[in-house]
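Students often ask why we bother encoding 3D structure as a string. The short answer is that it lets us treat folding as translation between two languages. Here is a chain of 289 residues written in the first language.
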Amino acid sequence: MHAHEPTWKQQNAFVRPLVAALGLQTPTAAYKAMVAACDYVRWLSAQDVPLEAEAVFTPENVEWYCATQLQRLGEHSRSTKRGALRQIGRASTRRAAWSPPDTRFRKPPAAEPYCTDERRGLRCLVPVQPTEARRRFFAGVLGLGFGFGLRGVEMRYVHATDLFEHRGALHLRVRGEYPRTVPARAELTQSILQLALDYPEGPLLGPYRDEQKAPMSRMKARLIIPDNAPALSLRRLRMSWMVDVLNDGVPLGDFAPAAGVTDLRLGSLLPHLHREDTAAVIAQLTGTN
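And here it is in the second language, the structure alphabet:
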């Protein structure tokens, strides 16, 4: 038996009911909270903090741990672990001076497009998913997001029969609130076609029940994505497509209907768009090019 095994078992037994009491909706969320809490408790025990909720889960201890032990992690992973520890702290203590969660509505930050390495990283995660259903869903959202710029709610309604060829390019009929036809990005065409050939019937991302609540979120939560990999964000997939097509010179008048937007708010896109040579821009603005 390992010398530290009794201590580890004691720490695990301490953490498990605290995480269970949160009532997290998915096994993945519960697992991540359990891992974050076990790592935290193991480190605090080494600092001679007694194994009691009121002593362990204090705002000061959580911030101390995050500042000294999580600095090597990316911002998203660090924020996720910190949020899990704060959530456990609020639920498991009475005396600790936790500030109440902020319930005010905040506008979500603008989505960042995925860089080339992040896109490659996401694609590499598709074949290592443990089930065919997860591989199908993962490949589908990458294809529909990077390839057509669809919103998450639009992806769930796509069928293989919505794809067709026109003027040498693969096109998609998009259903929903903003019906339109969008050509596929050339580098995504083959993978999208393969998915359609493999699953010619039913929703391209996989079957779901009409009465299911938030089926996209449920399926996304089941994906296995390591902490050191980019998180899968449907908003970032769509933003990546927008930046790609605008940087390829698609005029705004053609971009808007392809994106399914009726008003153009480009503030979040501008930092990611290519800038032209100053002289060329002046010539265009003055009408002398």
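Translate back mentally: The radius of gyration is 24 Å. Keep this in mind for the problem set.
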